[in-house]
Structure formats: structure tokens, C-alpha cells
Amino acid sequence: MFLIPRRSLPSLCIFVVYVQNDLRSAQLAAATSVRNSEATKTSSTYLAQALLTSAQAEGDAAVQLEEKIRYEHQLRLAAIDASLASKGRKVVVST
Questions:
Q1: What burial letters (b/e) apply to 2-11, b meaning 16+ CB within 10 Å?
Q2: How many Å apart are CA 62 and CA 70, to the nearest integer?
Q3: Which one has a higher pLDDT value, 20 or 17?
Q4: DSSP 3-45
Q5: Domain map (residue ranges) of the chain
Q6: What b/e readout covers 67-76, taking b as 16+ CB neighbours within 10 angstroms?
Q7: Nearest to residue 68, comparing CAs of 76, 20, 46, 16?
Q8: Tell me, what's the pLDDT at 55?
């Protein structure tokens, strides 16, 4: 059995209080660090989803723009073909 002299009991109690305070502050720091990490993870996940959605929207817009340009070219070619046909010239269309 470990015996502590009576005269050192107050200093031992103070030491125990300091250790408990250090332990609480370490637990608080660890909990804060965990919360910050979880918040960073969550925000990174949402940022990745937003970037993915943005990229998909840009891709869809590019496809629609390409289809629009192709359609406008077909209209122009049809107008040129109609104007040449009205003048009696024949145009051979190759696909």
C-alpha cells in the first residue's frame, strides 16, 4: 500500500486539480479539432457536388450550343440551295 504523508496532501490535491484541468483542456481541444475536421469534410463534400453540377451544366450547355449551330448551318445551306434552285441551277448534296 502506498502511504502519503499528511503534510503533502494539500499539494497533492492541487496537483490533482491541475492534472484534471489539463485533461479537460486537452479533451476540449480534441473535441474542437474533431468538429472542425467534420465541418471541413462536409463543406468539401458540398463543394465537390457543386463543382460536379456546374461541370455537368456547362457540358449540357456546350452540347445544346453545338446542336444549335449545326441547325443554323443546315438552315443556311437550305436557303442557299433554295436560292440556287430558284435560278434553275441544281445542287448535288452529299451526306
A1: eeeeeeeeee
A2: 12
A3: 20
A4: ---GGGHHHHHHHHHHHHHHHHHHHHHHHHHHHHHHHHHHHHH
A5: 59-87
A6: eeeeeeeeee
A7: 76
A8: 97
